Amino acid sequence: MNKIDKKRLSFFKLEPGHIPELLHLENIIFPCPWNEKMFKHELHSEYSRFCVLVDEQTHIYGYFGLWIVQDEGHINNFAVVPEYQRQGLGDMMMKEIFEIGKKHKISLYYLEVRKSNEPAIQLYKKHGFFEAGIRRNYYSHPMEDALLMTKIINL
Question: Is 84 part of the annotated catalytic residue set?
Answer without folding.
Answer: no
